[in-house]
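Amino Acid Chain and Its Fold in Token Form
===========================================
Purpose: to set a sequence beside its fold so the mapping can be learned.
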Amino acid sequence: MPYKGGVQLLPETERRPTLASYTSGNSYFYTAVALGIAIIIIGATLGGYKASLRQQIASLDGQLDASEQQRNKTQEQELIAASKQSRVMRQLLAGKWYWSQALERMEQMTQASVALTQLGASATKGTITFRGTADGYAAVARQLAAFVAATGVKDVSLRSVKTNPQGVIEFDGELSIDTRTLVGKPSPSPSTP
């Protein structure tokens, strides 16, 4: 029998290699084991996170279903309608015509010997129609001149002038106005001390 290093070798048996005999194989083995352990840990962590997310989703779905059942759809429709009405009112108030301001300016333009008996206004046409009485033709002429000189009046047209049986002059006409100037913004309020 052959001897090797003082050990007798049997011809029919071969010596088996061990992990210690492969130095480069050990590093690959340990790396593979570490990767396997890391994959198992990461998989378990992600699985737990996935289960937690599913539980949160189920909880939120339950809350949504409960709130859906508690909804008062009639009240919601009323709130939507009120919101739309509020928006329309804001738009109307933003474009509000200040006819009280226009009437105040008409009063300031009116001569002492003239009485305006009827006024009509159209914001779409930008006109104010008037009817009045005066004690003479000169008073009517002064009134028309006051209208022409006023701020916010673009044009004055006189429709008719006549004397009634009592001797009072009756006249009527129409003022073409600049709506922005005459009725488009509020007049500054007097400050109180």
Summary: Confidence is low (pLDDT under 50) at residues 189-193. The first helix runs from residue 23 to 70. The longest strand covers residues 153-163. The radius of gyration is 50 Å.
